[in-house]
Amino acid sequence: MGLFELAAAKMLSSAAMLLFGTVLLMATAKRISTCVYLFACQSAILTAEVVAAGYVQHMREAYIIAGMVLLVKVFAIPFALLWLMKKLRTAHDVGASLSPGYSVFVMSGLIILSFAAVRLYLIELHATEVILAAAVALILNGAFLMVTRSKALMLMMGLLVLENGIFLAALVTTFGMPLIIEIGIVFDLLIGLFLMGIFVFRIRDTFDHLDVSRLRGLRG
Amino acid sequence: MFKSRRAATSFALGAGILEVLALALAVWRISRTSSLELGKYLRADSLTAFFLVNLGAVFFLVLLYSTSYIRHIPAGRFSSPRWFYSLLFLFLFSIIAVYLAGNLGFLWIMMEATTLASALLVGFYNTEGAVEAGWKYLIVCTVGLAFALFGTIVFYVAAVHAGLQPEMALQWYALAHAGKMLANSPALLKLGFIFLLVGYGTKIGLVPMHSWLPDAHAEAPSPVSAMLSAALLNCAVYALIRYDAITSNAIGATFSHRLFIFFGAASVFVAGLLMIVQKDLKRLLAYSSVEHMGIIATGLGLGGFFGIYGALLHTFTHSMAKSLLFFGAGQVREMVGTSKISMLKGLARQLPWTSAALVVGLIAIVGLPPFGLFVSEFSILREAFSQRHWLAALVLLTTLSIVFAAMTFHFLKVLPGSSQMAESKTAVSDRKGPEFVAMGICVAVLITLGLSIPAPLNYLLKAAVAVLQ
Hints:
The complex is a heterodimer of chains A (220) and B (469).
Chain A: H1 3-28, H2 32-57, H3 60-88, H4 100-119, H5 122-125, H6 129-148, H7 152-174, H8 179-207
Chain B: H1 5-33, E1 35-38, E2 42-45, H2 46-69, H3 81-100, H4 104-122, H5 128-161, H6 172-178, H7 186-204, H8 212-219, H9 222-251, H10 254-276, H11 281-302, H12 304-336, H13 347-350, H14 352-365, H15 372-386, H16 390-414, H17 421-424, H18 434-451, H19 455-468
Antiparallel strand pairs in B: 1-2
């Protein structure tokens, strides 16, 4: 095994630590913009992982996917979200229902849980434990953010993190879905975010705030 | 282009008729050759054909109803007749694509597209309720579908590890026939199926993932409510049927069928109880959709000829009855200005024809003869009893009685008596137009299906059941 391939293989597993870092930092973040930057970092790590996986597996398609992830998730989406925040001119806090300390505590628990969950399937999957656990941790972190943060933009962030986790899971277990399907998924994600953006404006115009936990008109 | 409502409407009608003809042609081709394949990503068989017939019928009725319904739409950003029809056709297109998808990844993409196409339709009125419902719909369904994506990936992983070629590992046809190859990774298949059930179950509105459904159905314009209830929910049912076939072939039917019965019975029961306390006509109908999706899931879970036959027939009969009811509720909301049950006292005097349509819809939806739902529910119950599945039968029968009582109770509050509306507002009256043609067709189809199922439909149904057995 050449030096580059060894480095790429190491990269795949050690990047998991960085991902755990972004997950825990997101749990502590108080401002939405911090989360956006962390999401961009997270996506950049994913891009590196795709490149590494493509190099190890000698797959051309992986570079196209890496380019797409870089363009969409590292640049386009974070820029769009920051632009949206500037346009909306509302409070920038995440609207956490848990203090940062508690959030980190819960998130650490979820990371341990993801290691436990992954262990059940290791034999069938032939994947590296730590990176698969990172994928599950991203999914759980995304869901955690959606449940405990009340601002509309944070729900979008949670969804994005969740999607990153699913993407990583696909990457480490099968080296990605077929290219055309990946493109379709990213396209759906973009349109979805665009529509959520439209709704965020509508929520602000109709309710004068973006706290979706206060949308309680429809019950029963 | 198509600035005026009339131009947009006539163009939409023309396109709709072409669309329905194209669907009919596709169904005819499929019924002759029993399956159809187009390239790597499209595939159809008898099951697809049956659902396409259902979709074509519902869409035609919805379009007919819309032509006069959208008269009163206030112009605004994303809410004009042009937007309405464009989004409706986009919605239709994405549902058709789900049915025709031969590749499960493509199926997921198109399922997400159905959410995206319909989110703006749900929020069409731009009121507080509509914005909240639209946002909730978008978020809940997108998260649900993210889980479905995870499930899809797990299936893909299982197939690749089982030795299928990567380009074949997402074709439902290949997966359904891989059978024993997939049996080597039962844990993965079970994991994937649970995620898919949660994901697509969110779109079906199975309890406890149903939270978006009453809001979206109640706040959307009525033709869209009908489209959601009668077309979209079936489309998600279709996706789960495909995965059920794959899982059953590989690791036996017990696992997936038990889950179907559990979630189905839970949906029937919870929705049935919640219907008692509803205060809004359209929310009542929405919970009724949850209940009926539960009945369908239970029928699929029971399996056997009559279970599957009943479940498939029920998707069709429920579509017709629920379209009829939502059309009627739409008339009420348009004429009276509200669909709150407490405000509608004395409706029968104000809107006699609409009330008549609602009463027929009521009798049909609670499953009384001579309407189609009686046949399909009877078929499912027959399977439950012949399999000695007492619990499912008990839950179904109990809840059907509760639902009968609840719906009759609400309708009796609405229909008779002297009206409060007459005093306050200008007189409301039925305005007969295309709406009543659409409702009349629904009634005719329901009665026909209740008396005897037409031979071509029966042929399609039996072919669809044969695909699944």
